[in-house]
Design a protein that fits this description.
This protein is mainly alpha-helical and 279 residues long. It has helices at 28-36, 51-54, 58-65, 78-91, 99-108, 133-140, 154-159, 161-172, 198-204, 206-216, 219-232, 244-265, and strands at residues 7-8, 44-45, 71-75, 149-153, 191-193, 234-236. It has a two-stranded parallel ribbon with strand order 1-2. Strands 3-4 form a two-stranded parallel ribbon. Strands 5-6 form a two-stranded antiparallel sheet. Helix 1 links the parallel strand 1 and strand 2 (44-45). The chain is globular, with a radius of gyration of 19 Å.
């Protein structure tokens, strides 16, 4: 999407403006000035941020400032999403318990994310909560019309990327025939840390932070550079996913919400565990 001549997305993915309590109070003008300054009005502005689905405060805040926004959700199988989220938490040192223990505990103590929930510094991984797509997208229907929301699936992004992009660009009002030169390339592949100590070492070196600022000048470029550095320190590792017994446990945990997603948006997700009989 960043390559499309009619679109503009900031260099940094996951800005978190509408949900981060240490950022949102800076105001919408700050947000525009920081991430979209100098961008011509002939281009459509947007950003990619999965946390806008997970935190209940996002829909109302987005609608307050961008009531005509077009919203796109690209969903992956919630079972695989939960396992990927767990592996990321382990890689970052936020989780050390076995996967099954974490998901069982979160399911037994699950109380739901309040409508006003925002991103704080001590949030738990929310392995299950962030996969409740029906619940999350249902909140958006309280503020936005159904035709402002496009539901796509990761499996289609992998198997038929050209068709999916054409649908996406057409939905946004951009040229649907545009094909970016990086079509098919995989970004931000999960894995293990190449150098486990490197993130902490860099984080502690104030000199490097100062040098970053001097070299890059713009705050948005600094944030983009930090994001890319974290990805550089990841060695891609192919993982098959959770074992069958954990997949079944998660299928039961997500079954009701997937049914809600189908009802609200009249979609049939290409996830084997949740296919409707006869499909």
């Amino acid at each position: 999407m960043q390559r499309h001549p009619s679109l503009y997305l900031p260099p940094q993915k996951e800005v978190h403006f509408f949900v981060a309590e240490n950022v949102f109070p800076r105001g919408f003008d700050w947000y525009i000035q920081t991430y979209f300054s100098g961008v011509g009005e002939d281009r459509l502005w947007g950003e990619a941020c999965p946390s806008y689905m997970g935190y209940g405060a996002a829909p109302a805040r987005i609608h307050e400032y961008c009531p005509d926004a077009r919203l796109v959700a690209i969903l992956r199988n919630p079972i695989d999403r939960a396992y990927s989220h767990y592996r990321m938490a382990v890689r970052r040192g936020a989780e050390s318990r076995p996967f099954r223990q974490v998901i069982e505990e979160q399911r037994s103590h699950h109380t739901g994310s309040p409508e006003t929930k925002t991103m704080g510094v001590s949030d738990s991984p929310f392995l299950l909560e962030f996969g409740l797509y029906g619940k999350a997208l249902g909140r958006y229907l309280r503020y936005f019309e159904r035709d402002q929301i496009l539901i796509l699936f990761q499996e289609d992004l992998i198997s038929r990327p050209e068709e999916l992009l054409a649908e996406l660009f057409s939905f946004l009002g951009a040229d649907p025939d545009y094909r970016p030169p990086n079509l098919g390339r995989e970004y931000h592949v999960g894995g293990e840390k190449r150098l486990p100590w490197l993130d902490d070492w860099v984080r502690r070196r104030k000199f490097l932070k100062w040098a970053f600022k001097k070299a890059l000048r713009s705050k948005r470029n600094i944030q983009a550079a930090k994001f890319r550095f974290r990805q550089f320190n990841i060695k891609p590792v192919k993982v098959e996913g959770p074992p069958p017994e954990d997949r079944e446990f998660l299928r039961e945990a997500f079954e009701e919400d997937v049914a809600l997603l189908k009802r609200l948006f009249s979609v049939e997700p290409p996830w084997p565990e949740f296919r409707t009989a006869g499909k």
